[in-house]
Amino acid sequence: MRRFIPLLALALAASSCSSGGTVPETLPTGPPSTVSADATTTTIDPRPCAATTVLAPQGTAGTPTIERLPADSPHVAAVAASQTMFDCAVDVVVVDATDVNRIALAAVLAVNLQAPLLVGDAETANQLTYELDRLAPQRLWLVGESAEASAPEWTTVERIGGTDQEIAAEIATMIEADEDLLLPAGGGTDTVAIAIEAMVTGRSLTPPATDGSVVPVSPVSGNDITAGSGESGMVWLIDLDEPEAALVAAVGAITSGGFMGLVDGTDLRNEVALSRDLAPFADGVRMIQIVGGTEDAGWQAMVLLRGDQLPGGGFLLFPGRRIIALYGNPLTTSLGVLGEQDPAGGLARLEAMSVGYDADGTQVIPGWELIATVAAANPGNDGDYSNEMGLDVLTPWVDFAAANGMYVLLDLQPGRETFLSQAMLYEELLRQPHVGLALDPEWRLGPDETHGGYWGAVEPAEVNAVVEWLAELTRNNALPQKMLLLHQFWFDMIPNRELIEATPEVSLVIQMDGHGEIADKMGTWQSTITGWDSDLTTDWSTDQFEYGWKHFLDEDIPGPISAAEVLQLVPIPVFISIQ
């Protein structure tokens, strides 16, 4: 079950504070007004802010500016959120960085005041001085005994101190909350989820007990924790390990019409539900700020925003799916079963052949492995001993696959040409999310070689050039992960293949491409996954590759093994093609 918190329509009545603090005569009556991103009214005229206003985010809709903020620095994230959202603010809330529950209490207050939430203590107070001068608040609320900030001379400063229980009680009185939600003792993302629920429903929060007793807290279902509507075009993506920054960003999102999402920073492409959350306003996103995550989080955020998923769903190929593909060329029946019928007939045939491949619970995806460049006995006009198919031949099959949830590999048999130069011929097709590449080293010739009598080969450097180009294409077009299939049935076809470099944009798959007696084929399989001699022994469980199998309907003796037998192979293949 996904958790989605919509934008709160703030409309709060007048309130008073029984704790003795100075409370504004009236709380805000509606969302702040918005000014353009280049407005600087508070720096031009730094008198107390007359009416809270928010900034339209900088950047271009559809191609947003992406900023990375440092992890483990909630005060930096807070200032960045304030600077990208508020032009000026009547109220500002500053909380000490004691713990995430304290920040959650302050976040509820900030939303009710439609105020920026900043994080500061004695060590960070100087960093807040400029931001407070820029915001020019009439009132500064310090939450916690150690919260420190240097306020402008015209600003009234009020402190809400004491224990968390005392702070919670005072805030509950200020916002006139009739109900409260219990914060979990463990903090973390559950605290963020419960605090957001309090923010958008106008309820208060109760901190965990301090006497050692434990009160059960309703579990938070799902991990898709978000806040805000996204209407402003401002998005914050916060790593799960940064709950303090998430609360700060949630305040900004709810108050300004932005959007905050908690993410798995190890790979944003795991966040399929979040991508669906972003979809309604993705075209209008102008800025994304990311807290935490890996160095790849920036381009991965664009993958979520574009939202083009793989056949079967998601942005990462494996694990979770197994592709069963017909192999061949559309123009001939001599190179595989794909050319023996039209696309509709091919899919029907493939569906019948795919029965049983999901027996282990893995989703089965149908596919084509289209031979896009065909090895030739003659050099041809370009002298490369390879016939390149035109886009007019391949596009109908690619389009049919897109319409029917299929994955496509464009197989290259380059002759004397390089794999990269031939791959670049099909960039238009490879910009589609359901299209990957297959390299067939058997048909890669040296400068003076011709086809026949021996096997071709490719060096890792040439494969790495394709990987790098395909990865860049994937990043630049915000595409889901691409497959790069490498055919191999003998060591010399890809010598030193351990030097092939993995990249997160591309899933590398080695396919055992041999045929013949099944007993011999099983030996070739074992050699393919572990190496042909003691010096090349590899560990398939930790290397950079997935593995695939190939059926030959006529050449396997006495015939292809069954789906059940394929699923008994170790490792279990992720890709099976049928020739």
Report on this structure.
With 579 residues, this protein is an alpha/beta fold. It folds into 2 domains: 33-306, no CATH class; 321-578, TIM Barrel. Helices cover 29% and strands 20% of the residues. It has 16 helices and 23 strands. It has an 8-stranded parallel beta barrel, surrounded by 4 helices. Strand 22 (545-551), helix 16 (563-566) and strand 23 (575-578) form a beta-alpha-beta unit. Helix 3 (100-113) runs parallel beside helix 6 (188-201) and helix 6 (188-201) packs parallel to helix 7. It is elongated.
Identify the notable features of this structure and list them briefly.
29% helix, TIM Barrel, disordered N terminus, 2 domains, alpha/beta, 579 residues, 8-stranded parallel barrel
Task: Please outline what is shown here.
With 579 residues, the protein is α/β, with parallel strands linked by helices. It has helices at residues 41-44, 74-85, 100-113, 125-135, 164-175, 188-201, 243-256, 272-278, 297-306, 343-353, 391-403, 419-424, 427-430, 460-476, 518-530, 563-566, and strands spanning 33-35, 53-55, 65-69, 86-88, 91-95, 117-119, 139-143, 156-160, 180-182, 204-206, 226-227, 234-239, 259-263, 287-291, 321-328, 363-375, 386-388, 407-412, 435-439, 482-488, 506-512, 545-551, 575-578.
Please render the helix and strand layout as text.
Layout: E1 33-35, H1 41-44, E2 53-55, E3 65-69, H2 74-85, E4 86-88, E5 91-95, H3 100-113, E6 117-119, H4 125-135, E7 139-143, E8 156-160, H5 164-175, E9 180-182, H6 188-201, E10 204-206, E11 226-227, E12 234-239, H7 243-256, E13 259-263, H8 272-278, E14 287-291, H9 297-306, E15 321-328, H10 343-353, E16 363-375, E17 386-388, H11 391-403, E18 407-412, H12 419-424, H13 427-430, E19 435-439, H14 460-476, E20 482-488, E21 506-512, H15 518-530, E22 545-551, H16 563-566, E23 575-578
Parallel strand pairs: 1-2, 3-14, 5-6, 5-7, 7-8, 9-10, 12-13, 12-14, 15-16, 15-23, 16-18, 18-19, 19-20, 20-21, 21-22, 22-23
Antiparallel strand pairs: 2-4, 11-13, 16-17
Helix pairs in contact: 2-7, 3-5, 3-6, 3-7, 6-7, 8-9
